[in-house]
Amino acid sequence: MSHIDSGLPVASGNLLASGAARTAGFDMKIHPHMLRHSCGYKLANDGVDTRTIQSYLGHKSIQHTVRYTELAPTRFKSLFRDWPAIL
User: Fold this and answer.
1) Which of 22, 53, 64, 84 could pair covalently with 59 via S-S, beta carbons 3.0-4.6 A apart?
2) What is the pLDDT of residues 15-55, one digit of tens each?
């Protein structure tokens, strides 16, 4: 969340996230930016194209987006499943 033109002050976003985390039973401190990261990882794990994720998250540089795809363990799952067909 940004404090610029977001419509929601940062402190309010933090309160909403921490309240939801408490309600959900999380033992760790949760902040709104964690939701952004989890969205990026979810999209990458679902096989969404890196450029699409970049646009969705508003990254100016693809290098910021590549972090999500590099750490997505299911990203290449079909490659290994279909390995005999590739040979």
Assistant:
1) 64
2) 988 898 899 898 888 888 888 888 888 898 888 989 999 99
Beta-carbon contacts of 35 under 8 Å, excluding residues fewer than 6 positions away, are 17
Q: Quickly count: other Cβ atoms within 10 Å of residue 53's Cβ.
A: 24
Measured CA to CA, the distance from residue 64 to residue 71 in angstroms comes to 12
Place of tokens 């990882």: 41
Measured distance CA(56)–CA(63) in Å, rounded: 14
In whole angstroms, what is the distance from residue 74 CA to residue 85 CA? Answer: 19
